[in-house]
Design goal:
Blueprint lengths: L1 E5 L5 E7 L2 H4 L5 H14 L59 H18 L2 E4 L9 H10 L7 E5 L4 H7 L5 E5 L5 H5 L3 E5 H11 L1
């Protein structure tokens, strides 16, 4: 599959680049995509929640009333969960929510998400961008020339470019990410996916 390459002015360069069918032309595997997104979102959870249980509450340990003759249930301590201020029964404890994802499944999920974007016509290939200095206005001009100023977009660069990253940091509808950091969730969480030529080469080496 061939796709046209655009420059930062939003005009075609007259060159076409081939998208590998093994990555951008496969039949999307919806279950693999589901597992990858589930794993990504689970990893975002801190899991630092904690509630004090009966043995951790600070309170007097004296027996608060006699064992028999009160007509009510026996009680031995204010730490009991039945009293206000007592410990919580089966309260949350620190834990990890991470979900294991096999490497081949993760690779299949990314290729499936990329293939979905190509089928939707939501993928554009750009020449490699490089800014002399971090300047948001320069990046906004690139988005305007591509008619993406009001569209949620993701620009994938081949190598980490500090000036490019800093120029896009203040844009609410756009992000810049390195190719080796691209996840299935990132691909699906944008309306338009912008791939630089170097990013395309990096993805082809990683996912093929």
């Amino acid at each position: 599959m061939n796709i046209e390459v655009f420059n930062k002015e939003g005009k075609g360069t007259g060159r076409n680049i081939e998208l590998p069918d093994s990555i951008f032309g496969i039949e999307p595997n919806n279950h693999a995509i589901y597992l990858a997104v589930k794993s990504f979102l689970a990893a975002q959870r801190q899991g630092t929640h904690k509630a004090k249980e009966k043995g951790e509450v600070t309170a007097s340990t004296r027996k608060i009333k006699r064992q028999k003759g009160t007509g009510t249930a026996r009680a031995g301590s204010l730490k009991s969960p039945v009293f206000r201020g007592g410990g919580r029964v089966f309260g949350p404890r620190p834990r990890t929510y991470s979900v294991k994802l096999n490497r081949k499944v993760a690779r299949l999920a990314r290729a499936s998400a990329l293939s979905l974007k190509v089928k939707e016509g939501s993928v554009k290939v750009l020449e490699d961008l490089s800014f002399d200095a971090p300047r948001t206005k320069d990046f906004v001009n690139v988005l305007n020339s591509l008619d993406l100023s009001d569209t949620k977009s993701l620009l994938v660069s081949g190598e980490y470019n500090t000036n490019l990253y800093l120029s896009a940091r203040n844009c609410a509808n756009s992000r810049v990410i390195n190719a080796n950091e691209l996840s299935t969730y990132d691909i699906l969480n944008c309306k338009t996916l912008l791939l630089s030529e170097s990013a395309l080469k990096s993805l082809a080496e990683t996912l093929s």
